[in-house]
Write a structure and sequence with these properties.
Number of strands: 11
Strand content: over 45%
Largest sheet: 7 strands, mixed
Distance between the termini: 37 Å
Structural class: mainly beta
Helix content: under 10%
Number of helices: 0
Order of helices and strands: EEEEEEEEEEE
């Protein structure tokens, strides 16, 4: 599985961005996809995830502001980020998990989101 993330950039506080993550390869094996982020000096943390059945999970810090969705036809997962805050500044990573006997975890390249105050 290969993941290609895009959509990061610089935005003012209160603004919006949409991240995209396109999956290719053995996509039929993917059970869930999500977005993680890592701010300078901090550990990588889960932002949002969506399972193959459509159920979603969000970090408390982004609930009500971020929305994760997936387009199965395009094999793409999106993260719509609204009401952005400076503390949302981080490198955002796309993630996919596949269970084929064992659990396999795949990562895309990071995309930088910078929110100015």
């Amino acid at each position: 599985v290969q993941l290609q993330a895009s959509g990061g950039g610089l935005v003012q506080a209160g603004g919006s961005l949409r991240l995209s993550c396109a999956a290719s390869g053995s996509i039929s094996s993917i059970n869930a996809m999500g977005w993680y982020r890592q701010a300078p000096g901090k550990q990588r943390e889960l932002v949002a995830a969506i399972a193959s059945g459509g159920s979603t999970n969000y970090a408390d810090s982004v609930k009500g502001r971020f929305t994760i969705s997936r387009d199965n036809a395009e094999n793409t997962v999106y993260l719509q980020m609204n009401s952005l805050k400076p503390e949302d500044t981080a490198v955002y990573y796309c993630n996919a998990a596949a269970v084929v006997g064992l659990l396999y975890v795949y990562w895309g390249q990071g995309t930088l989101v910078t929110v100015s105050s």
